[in-house]
Fold this protein.
Amino acid sequence: MPKDRDIQQIDSVMRQYHIQKRLRRRFSEFIHDHKAEGFYGNKNDRGDFTYQELCHLAKEFLEDQEG
């Protein structure tokens, strides 16, 4: 998937879960940290996350922000 589509997908998830724009970098780092820890998505061979997987990560991210 081209990078622009990846960014659009992340932006869409952020809107859906009301993640503030000021937290975008932190959310992106959260996603990349998951990959670095060996948690890959099922979208393709690169381990990109599906939309549903990004939604799950958004929920985790918000829980971490609250706690």
